[in-house]
Each structure stands twice: as C-alpha cells, then as structure tokens.
Amino acid sequence: MNSSEISRMAILEIEKRRLAAENQALNRKAEITAKLPQLAEIERALTQTASELTKAIISGKGGSSAEFAKIRNNSLQAQEMIRKILVSNGYPEDYLETKYICPDCADTGFTENGRCKCFKALIKEISAKELNRTANMPYADFEHFRPDYYSGVVIDGVDCHEKMSQTLNFCIQYAANFSPISESILMIGRTGTGKTHLSLSIAKRVMEMGYTVVYGSVVNFLASIEKEHFGRATDDSDTMSILLDCDLLILDDLGSEHHTAFYESTLYNIINSRINMGKPVIISCNLSGEELSAVYNERIVSRLTCTYTILPFYGKDIRQQKMLEKGNYR
Questions:
Q1: Residue 65 burial by CB count (10 A; 0-12/13-18/19+): exposed, middle or buried?
Q2: Cα 289-197-135 angle, rounded to 5 deg
Q3: Nearest one of 240, 179, 183, 177 to 214, comparing CA atoms
Q4: Of 98, 102, 83, nearest to 28 (Cα)?
Q5: pLDDT by residue (tens digit) across 4-18?
C-alpha cells in the first residue's frame, strides 16, 4: 500500500467520522423536536435571525451597528432559551450541538493552517498498521509461549527452562507496565529460542493498550529508507518518520542486513534518536556480544550495551517442534 492509498483511507475515515457525528446530531434534533415541540419554533426563529444577519452582512445595506447588535442579541437570547429548556427537561445544554471527534477541524481533516493534527495522526496510525501487516500477530501471544520446550536443556551450565521462564515473566511484566518512556531491550540468543515470539507478544499486548507499535525486520526497514533517501521509492512514504514517531519500535533480526556505510549510519540514527527522545525500542539479535562488537561500530555497540536492558535467550533451535503446534516461534 503506497502513501496515496494510505491518504485515501485516512480521508475516508475522517469523512466517516464527520457523517457519523452529523447523523447523531440530526437524530438528537428529531428526538427533541418530537418531545419538546416548543423548541422547534425557537429553532425557526433562530434560523430566521441568522438569515437576516447574513443578508445584512452580504448586502452591506441597513447594517448599522445598532441593527447588528439587535440581531445578535436576539440570537443569543434564543440560544440561551434553548439551553434552559433542554436542562429543565433533563438534557445536557449542548445536546443539540454536533459532537465531532476533533473539534479543531470538525472532522474535515483541515484547519486554517492546513492539514489537521488529527489527520496526520491517522496517517501515522494507518501507516504503522500497514508496516505491521506481515507480522504473525494472531499466533504470537504469551499464552502460546511454552517454557516446557526448554525442559532438560542445559547449555554451558545454564538451566534453559529456568532462565526462559524468567524471561517470559520479564516480558509479561514489561508489557503490562509499558509506557512511552519504558526501557529499551536487546534480546540476544541463538536462532529459534523465542525472541521474535516474545517481542511480538509484547507488541500485541501494548497495541491492545492503545499505544502505537511498529514491528519489522531491520533489513526491510533499512531497504525502505534507502529507496526513499535515494529517490527510488514508488511513492512518497516516510519510513524514518514512522519509526521515530511510534510509541514502541521493534526491530527484528539485527545483524542480518548488509553492512554498508549508509545502513550503519541510518541504524545509528534510529537508535540514537529514540534514545534522545526517551522512546523505547526492542531489538532482537542472533549475534553474541562479541559478534555484535565485531560487526558494528563502537557508537552503535556502546548505545546498545549501555542504554538497553540485555535480555539473553537460552536453548536450542526449537523451530521444528513449534511448527507442530499452534504458533510460530522464531
């Protein structure tokens, strides 16, 4: 889905909101007219007053300040009378007003300064969902993470079942207590030990709490940013903006990308910018600490090892076992 399609989706959503708000207002007006017919006469008088004021302004004739003041005063009195009648009959005084989701633009997507902030937020929300579209969210949850798959596995003297049970509990608590200023996490371990599954489980829970989450592989994100940077993209997407703006960014499979100067500087920019903004990132990586230091420059390694919580994953590659069960651990 390119940016034009995303914009169309946002426009349709804004239009849907506006029509819903206006239909609700019409339904409330019909209800009040039926229950309180005296308001209908006041409404007609108010409409007539507004019409007279508009004609006077447009024509420029007979529009002395005294006449304008009289028309305006009549209008204010009628509005006040309507509010009092509503309240005396158990309704809120603003019951007949149209309740738009965004009062700044009245659900049009535009203000006098251009695109409304609600429209921009909707664009980012739709874009984030599009980036997450390929993630296997339905099957990635904490309930499907099975520590018993690690039972009896001891590697370098480490009881993998015990350690992975602790890791699961850590991730559950992290998701439950998540905020846009939560700590960042670096998940390190061999392929097939559950890093992607638990990071997606966190993503799913955090999204259910109403936060924006962007999940994807480092390879795909860097490739998209490169195309946009060098003008080879087929649309005007802004992947970097989406990665920096979301509440939680999850970068999967760090170390699988090609190592170019552009990729390394871009990766550093993402990591460093979110640190400076105090925004959390979860990164999964199949590299060991030594391999990480050998592959990336000191600036990247320093920020990952000094500002991220290191979460080791233990165990053997259990992907083949997981394919036999519901869920896809990676």
A1: exposed
A2: 110
A3: 240
A4: 98
A5: 677 788 899 999 999
Torsion angle in degrees (nearest 10) through CA of 4, 8, 9, 11: 140
d(CA 93, CA 199): 48
The structural domains of the chain, ordered by start, are 3-118 (no CATH), 134-322 (3.40.50.300)
- Distance CA(13)–CA(88), nearest Å, equals 37
250-273 tens-digit pLDDT: 999 999 888 899 999 999 999 999
In contact, 271 and 173? CB cutoff 8 Å: no
Phi-psi label, residue 156: left if phi above 0, alpha if psi -120 to 50, beta otherwise: left
CA atoms within 13 A on the CB side of 39: 23
Q: Give the span between the Cα atoms of 216 and 243, in whole angstroms.
A: 10
Q: Are strands 154-155 and 114-115 parallel, antiparallel or unpaired?
A: unpaired
Q: What is the DSSP string of 85-141?
A: HHHHTT--TTTTS---S-TTTTTSSEETTEE-HHHHHHHHHHHHHHHHTTS-GGG-S
State the pTM of this model.
Answer: 0.66
| Distance (Å, whole) CA 43 – CA 51 | 12
The beta strand positions in 171-297, using DSSP E, are 184-189, 213-217, 248-254, 281-285
What type of residue is 206?
Answer: V
